Amino acid sequence: MALSGLDIYKLLPKTNCKDCGFSTCLAFAMALAQKRTSLDKCPHVTAQAKEALESASQPPIKLITIGSGDNKLEIGNETVMYRHEQKFFHPCGIGFLVEDILSESEIDKRIADINSLKFERVGQVISPDLICVKNTSKDKDRFAGSVKRVMDGTKSNIALYGDDSAAMAGAVSLCRARKPLVICGDSGNLDEFIKLAKTGSLPLAVTCSNIEEAASATAKAKQGGVEEIVINIKAKNLSGKIQDYALMRRTALKKNFRPLGYPTISFTDSVEPDIELAEAISYATKYAGIVIIRNTKKEYVFPLLVTRQDIYNDPQKPVQVEPKIYEIGKVTNQSPVLVTTNFSITYFTVAGEVESSKIPSYIICCDADGMSVLTAWAAEKFTAEKISDTLNNIGIMDMVGHRKVVIPGYVSVLSGKLEEISGWKVNVGPREASGITNYLRGYK
Length: 444
Ligand code: SF4
Description:
By secondary structure, the chain is an alpha/beta fold.
């Protein structure tokens, strides 16, 4: 939890010497709490106070990086319990389990399935982030062989899961450059795994049965020189794990309890696809840093990725498309002109329906701060004046030989005024986007 100005003030020299550029120590403390200045501006702060202040300024949940380059996965560094308080910063990683008891061809098939999981939604590409290779066989060579196949078959980030430190060391030596997450499956071998992670500067996941064990395992790993730690709570059911995750997050955020200030990794238990999806979505919602699933079928992975995308969008900034003219199909100067707002979901829904109609059309997205049609109308961001101004200045008049525009049915109330001030003939389209296909097919 961030320190208040008064908390900081208590740690300052209180001499009001002004060397920091502020008239009093209290003014400096207030500015520091609001992150308008930095601690090094006060040359008189004691080493002890400096340590306390620097430690308090660390994020309550540590940022962990798995992999490297553009493809890297960053988790943690969250600051709130609920997204409406601010937003969630680092989307949880979605990964797939690959057990080394599978045959070579089964592993290759799984890799090919995972590589194909890439979708576009509301203008963003969404895809999974990592593959977790598990040493289920307990065979060192088999584990290494599976890791090599995954390395060769995908650019995905990698997590390595095992109990045996010698088998893990062999696997790590194959993929150290990809900065894998090393998951210690047996707390009895934690010391060797700590040494392995420290030597390779790798993130380490500690597996524990409960919160108390987790706190002592992370403290031990930190003491052993591992900076990037992830917590894996095992041996609990879905509700037990979610209760633990919520409690850990609350304790880290509200009490600034460092041993629990690390992201978590969660494995689904069910092999029944619907139940596994429900489990995975529950973990992604509260509060897993990584979710590892088995099922690679698109119809199950897509909803999980969509849920993650929705949860990790900034709730105060709607996903927007650029306000401009969009051409759908081979438009001519006689093609219909539809107008809507620049809320991303609205645009892509309308565009999808226009495509289905096979009637090439122009869609003009008015700048409505990314709000949906009714919300923008209620907030006076999608008014007759705004639409008129857009129609007459966005360049559509040079592209079509007519002056007819279709507005959403929900704002039919704007039609009279819009026609009067814009000089365009206004047609009222359907209320719901689902009616656009039929509407356009009968449009003249
Ligand atoms: S330099 Fe330090 S001691 Fe001097 S006024 Fe600023 S905060 Fe206070």
